[in-house]
Amino acid sequence: MNRIATTFATLKAQNKKALIPFITAGDSDPSMTVPLMHELVQAGADIIELGVPFSDPMADGPTIQRSSERALKHYVGLRDVMAMVAKFRKTDGNTPVVLMGYANPVEAMGQKNFAAKAKECEVDGVLIVDYPPEECENWIMQLNQFGIDAIFLLSPTTPPARMQQVAKMAQGYIYYVSLKGVTGASHLDLSDVSNMLTQLRSYISIPIGVGFGIRDGATAKAVSELADAVVVGSRIIEVIEKSPKTEVLANVGNLLKSLRNAIDENHGKAPS
Fold this sequence. Notes:
The structure is a single chain. The protein has a single domain, classed as TIM Barrel (Alpha-Beta Barrel), CATH 3.20.20. The protein is built from 12 helices and 9 strands. It has helices at residues 3-13, 33-42, 62-73, 78-89, 103-109, 111-120, 137-144, 160-169, 190-201, 217-224, 234-242, 248-264; strands at 18-24, 48-51, 97-101, 125-128, 149-150, 152-154, 174-177, 208-211, 229-232. A 9-stranded parallel beta sheet has the order 5-4-3-2-1-9-8-7-6. Strand 4, helix 7 (137-144) and strand 5 form a beta-alpha-beta unit. Helix 2 (33-42) runs parallel beside helix 12 (248-264) and helix 5 (103-109) crosses helix 6. It is globular, with a radius of gyration of 17 Å. The two termini are 29 Å apart. The model is unreliable at 181-185 (pLDDT under 50).
């Protein structure tokens, strides 16, 4: 098993749910990214989603858009992100890292070249928002050659036919977008999430993580009762954005610990 499958298997044996934080590489300063990744792990992250900065992040709301803008001011590109993962791997060989982003940087590098370089720096999974499943056969083949999981998004508006198609293709876990709209949206309806997850599980056997609209411990706990993983992005980016540079690590760590403890209240034991 790869790191992602091993992580979910271990959590299942412990009756725990995964906490998957998202940060944008290079935000708010490139020197902060690797320390932030380690802080996330120390605070209870099971898998890290690392965003690749992009100039037109169409699925992201204003908060994550601004994080990409801050990173791009430092000229952080895809090769820089991979170098950050390689540096992280020097002292952490266990935590899965998933690159999340858009097609343009991958296409500029070339899918085959991207997959090979992702393997070199020990990326575990890749989620490209604007790769339609109907056109991903070659993409999945390139990743599979290097043992990298192709992760896909599903949403409340995904028709059953596409759910079935993604179920045949997806690896690692499914990222279920719990709200219509962009990242950072609110008004999470847990009954809708529950109904959709029931439908998704009729097609999908791999773990399902739920993201969008999770901003506090209470919501994280409620979502963990329904899903296999809780994905948190915009709330973390807000803390990075609003914190003095000297306090970013501590503030992000405190937020994640609060989410971890809330999730673990009914799933295993919270870390001390």
